[in-house]
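Postdoc handover notes: sequence design on the structure in folder B. Input tokens:
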């Protein structure tokens, strides 16, 4: 009987550790909600100042590819204090699966031959929204997180400067 109790205890220890880590990682308050791809596409179809972009490995560095509108398939540079480059760290911004809905003030056609960030257009960003799922990559980060919300930015992202309000 004592051996059975020990075996049950050994089996439940990983489950308890898993639950503790999950609760610890997911206990931060919501800061900014993401929107679905359907919601983003709806806004793009109604207003031509919106563009859906995704982070893409281009050249030697990282950049953005436009996924919607008349500039679909073009590489773009996003400029402005309210852009993902300004408000997100590499943990969030440079994950290849992340997509953003950008509201632009203006678009300028400028071809840059920068080998790190080649682009064909400059999008002057007024604001942006995250399109879910919001992925994070802690590979080269000083902090680690096993579980994270995919539908929103939370207090952990603010605490560790992965997102600036």
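Designed sequence:
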């Amino acid at each position: 009987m004592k051996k059975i109790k020990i075996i049950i205890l050994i089996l439940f220890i990983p489950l308890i550790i898993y639950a503790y880590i999950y609760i610890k990682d997911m206990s931060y308050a919501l800061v900014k909600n993401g929107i679905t791809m359907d919601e983003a596409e709806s806004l793009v179809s109604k207003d031509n100042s919106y563009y859906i972009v995704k982070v893409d490995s281009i050249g030697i560095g990282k950049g953005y590819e436009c996924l919607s509108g008349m500039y679909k398939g073009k590489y773009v540079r996003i400029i402005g204090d309210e852009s993902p480059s300004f408000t997100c760290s590499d943990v969030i911004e440079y994950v290849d699966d992340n997509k953003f809905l950008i509201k632009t003030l203006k678009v300028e056609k400028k071809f840059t031959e920068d080998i790190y960030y080649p682009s064909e257009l400059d999008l002057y960003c007024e604001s942006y929204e995250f399109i879910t799922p919001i992925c994070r990559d802690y590979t080269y980060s000083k902090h680690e997180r096993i579980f994270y919300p995919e539908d929103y930015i939370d207090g952990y992202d603010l605490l560790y400067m992965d997102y600036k309000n």
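Context for whoever picks this up: Helices lie at 2-25, 37-46, 84-87, 90-93, 155-159. Don't rerun without checking with the PI first.
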